[in-house]
Amino acid sequence: MASQKLLLLFLLFSAVSTKAVSLKKNQIHLSPTSSLAKLQAEKLIRGLNLFPKDVANTGIDVLAVGSSKIVEKQFSFPVLGAPGPSVQEFGHHAGYYKLPHANAARMFYFFFESRNSQNDPVVIWLTGGPGCSSELALFYENGPFHLAKNLSLLWNDYGWDKASNILFVDQPTGTGFSYTSDDNDIRHDENGVSNDLYDFLQAFFKQHPQYVNNDFYITGESYAGHYIPAFAVRVHQGNKAKEGIHVNLKGFAIGNGLTDPEIQYPAYPDYALNTSLITQSDYVSIKKMVPSCVKAIKSCGSDDGDACVDSYEICNNVFNQIMSIAGNVNYYDIRKQCEGSLCYDFSDVETFLNLKSVRDALGVGDIDFVSCSTIVYEAMIVDWMRNFEVGIPALLEDGIKVLIYAGEYDLICNWLGNSNWVHAMTWSGQKEFGAAPTIPFVVDGVEAGKLKSHGPLTFLKVHDAGHMVPMDQPKASLQMLQNWMQGKLATSDKAENVAPK
């Protein structure tokens, strides 16, 4: 089972096309490791039942030539199911933004006004991959709707738009409905990713000035454990430098993320042993592979380039060895078995978003929806083993709230590895955080998780959830978000259930 299994919320992607090979050759040098990654990515996408037609979105321009502004339209989908509000009661927007620091890139996004109050915080959600569309979360996790099997939409009673005004962004360029006709616009690192997101955010608030003073939070999962802290640092730097519009950044939350690989990869055999995926003798054998992985990650941090690509292969050998023993277990949720190559079925989102009627409603013209992009994934391989914990301590010192949460049954970005890096992080409150008590996270009088908190930092292990917490525990995830934004999460064992029922 594949060296790609490592991480990502939906990781990966489709078959090779002539166009893809051309794009790739112009973009990055392909090492044998990168070629192997593509093959493994193609296997993985079958496990999610996603088969995008293209390996990256290179659609023709749907915006006016030279436009650097947002082109946005309000739309409405027919939503079935009662009881429920009328979709016309809320502002649902879709748009494109021409990225100013790119040659031909257009970033696509959804924006849903809060079902509660316009004064609720503005939340942005970033799906991982790298290269998977945030529409996967929109329709299967925490968006306003769920997709029924007949492709009708049902209101999500626990959509995060019940507590926030929420953005779902297709990024990096080439993902989802975001596109470019220029190979040079494909991003390779978090500097490019975070600058594009910052430029978009500035344009969004200029387009929607009524939200400028609202609290702002960055959220996401999986490979977004890289995106989110990099983006938070960029926003905070922009605020300090008084660049453009001040963004009222209050915090960020990472769900089952990959943030500090040097600490998280060595946790694989420990988690696998603790959950009986491997035996003690297996554990001893696999642990012997860890030092070479750690050494390779350190080389990536100092040497960049090929060292980072090599570390990707070396470290994924640890994960692969566990999976070769565990067999057909679903590495996103070890309570489940994969049936054949199929571990989840997210195919309806591709079918729905490629309907002409839907594309017309969204204003995307003839552009196809690319659920996950192999080109984006491969381009970000050099970024994979970098440590993005390093920017977080300075944010904590400035009072930016940080929530790291993880479903307890996810192997690929498991709670243990995430807990380890959070506890190892050096900041002024490190000792106090380590000594803080672990308390229950309570939903409707029942323990839904265990959390630890000190100052602006909180870690939460969510019970009965895998990689995608909002999908597995929708009510708990909404209460988590709402309590956290209100500063009540650390007292949730005593607090009333404030999430809408």
TrEMBL record:
Quote the function comment for this protein.
Probable carboxypeptidase.
Looking up PANTHER family in the UniProt record yields:
CARBOXYPEPTIDASE, SERINE PROTEASE FAMILY S10 SERINE CARBOXYPEPTIDASE
Instruction: Name the family the entry cites.
Output: Belongs to the peptidase S10 family.
- Gene Ontology molecular function: any one: serine-type carboxypeptidase activity
Matching entries from InterPro entries are given as: AB_hydrolase_fold, Peptidase_S10, Ser_caboxypep_his_AS, Ser_caboxypep_ser_AS
Highest taxon listed in the record's lineage: Eukaryota
Q: Does the keyword ATP-binding apply?
A: no
What is this protein's record name? Carboxypeptidase
Protein source organism: Durio zibethinus (Durian)
